[in-house]
Amino acid sequence: MPEYLPKVSRRIRVLDKGREHKNRKIEHWMIIAVFLMLYDIVTVMFSYFFALWVRFDCEYSAIPHKFMGGLLYFVPVWAVISVFVFRAWGMYRGIWRYSSYSELVRTAAGSVTSSLLHSILITLLFGRMPLSYYVFGFVVQSGLLLVPRFAYRFVLLMKTTVRRGSSADASVMIIGAGEAGRMLLRDINTSKEVNDSVACFIDDNSNKWGRYVEGVPVAGGRDDILVNVKKYNVDKIYIAIPSASAEDKRDIIAICNESDCEVKQIPGMVDLVRGRVTVSQMRDVSVEDLLGREPIKADMNAVYEYINNKVVLVTGGGGSIGSELCRQIASHTPKMLIIFDVYENNAYSIQLELKEKYPELRLETLIGSVRDSRRLYQIFEQYRPQIVYHAAAHKHVPLMESSPNEAIKNNAIGTYKTAYAAMVHGCERFVLISTDKAVNPTNIMGASKRLCEMIIQSFDAKVKQARQGGTAEIPQLYIHVGKPGSGKLDLSKVKTEFVAVRFGNVLGSNGSVIPVFKKQIERGGPVTVTHPDIIRYFMTIPEAVSLVMLAGTYAGGGEIFVLDMGSPVKIDTLARNLIKLSGYKPDVDIKIVYTGLRPGEKLYEEKLMAEEGLKKTGNDMIHIGCPIPFDTDVFLKQLEGLMNAAYANSPDICERVAAVVSTYKDANIVNQTAAQSVEFAEAADSEEDQ
Fold first, then answer.
1. Which residue, 9, 144, 428, 606, has fewest beta-carbon neighbours within 10 Å?
2. What is the CA radius of gyration of the chain?
3. Contact indicator for 576, 586 with CB cutoff of 8 Å
4. For residue 235, is it within any domain?
5. pLDDT in tens, 284-333
6. pTM exceeds 0.85 for this model
7. Any idea what the CATH number is for the domain that residue 393 is in?
8. Buried (b) or exposed (e) across 603-623, using 16+ Cβ within 10 A?
């Protein structure tokens, strides 16, 4: 390198710095800071002169010369020095329109430091001054230092309050007069994005009623919401109670929905802790908020430890439950994740999502059907999955009623083939995803899922029988010519644990009623409900998936895991609340039409057959249904007959299934009995009232 280059480089840097210094403009805040410094100099001098003047009865001539000398010679010099003390505490760099607690602390700290040094130095240099001089001088100085720093914000706040009160776009009611509500009020009052005015607070704490939060009245409790909506002409209701239970939130939201107001709520407790309660973060009330049940909070550490470094296969991995399973599994370092689905669009979608989010994940996306034994054997032979989550199934009740043989082929026989392949290839856990429609089924879809549960229980019983030295055999059911596997399976060496997990309806899943209602509302209605009295249990997709994964660790073999889903929800009520949440009035803006129960649909879903009973697990909201005893040998022979009939597209397949699943009943009879029970109960209530 030539010798002159470093010198040239240094010279360029010097010129750049000079240019930068020359171009640096004086900011507005710097001018304000200079005026504040001058004000502070005057403040310090005036404060201590005023303190001495007051000490001697407000007569200048009465002040002794020795005190006056100290004041005249020391205080002006100290006033200038105090500016550097204040500057060290950052008192000239605040944005005064946002003055808050931190500015108050800095100003107080600067005043205390200045007063202490002043007291020490004047005493040492000029002698002891009157005690009131030190105390009163500090008090006056502190007050005068605070005035200009907070007066600007106060004036702005008053102007904003007056302006919003007279020309606000919307009148707001805040439910919750606690810390979250107060933070929300402040954000509304200072926000430039919204021009709303807070009219009142609502809080269930009666101690707050009739009092004010920063000038806004606390008008009453939840029972007073609708009255005060009319009184204050409220347009928006913001729910700011992050610590409230899900049941309380549901009840409050139900009351709010009786008004015509827009209803929003803060996301959660985390935002309150972080001090981020703002209007922009308010979210719409979701359907999940109407369930009135706390989300399942399971300790998933054991689950994730179990999944870690394992090969995991998810059948139906592109579906609603399957894709969420894949997301949660992928986030906890499996050795390999295999997505298996017959529908390539869904499989491709979740594949892209996981590859983008987890580039290091070993991911295989395979297309195929659980009805294809040879494809299943090929996959299990090649990848040797240690955990299988079996989510592949036909789930749509009315469609399966018109194609019952497909429900048996895909759900029952597909489960049989997948479970058998898992057992042959040394899989450790096989988790079947079932449904509450398998409880006393009134449709072929529910009956087929009950068959799946019975298959899992049969496999578990046969394996345990073989382990105990008994003679046990599970037949191979194949529709294709030629066996994918060969040789007789020694069940005593099988290490697979089989379990089933029973769900209610999953909010937001493919085929869920919620997306259907939302589309109907977007089109302007009508919203179609099958029956005004139909009820269902609901859960969220994350809850469902956490239960599936927990089942994999709790498994002892043959269990049916059941979630305590809380109270059932009336679908008619759900539809009406969804219309209200969308800003419309049911039966006025959006009509509700009752279409009648669909084929195979029943009024009331059940979580568990009465004869199964319940056992507790480590989670209070998760229970185990005790297996119903049945003759597994007879069942397995009947199942082979069902398979042959299904592949022959037998017209009497439903009757054949009913002969195997003793709890399978015709929907019309079940609904008629249920309706009669409701009418009888209503009549009894009416007689009691009279």
1. 9
2. 37
3. yes
4. yes
5. 666 666 666 666 666 677 787 888 999 999 999 998 889 989 998 998 88
6. no
7. 3.40.50.720
8. bbbebbbeebeeeebebebbb
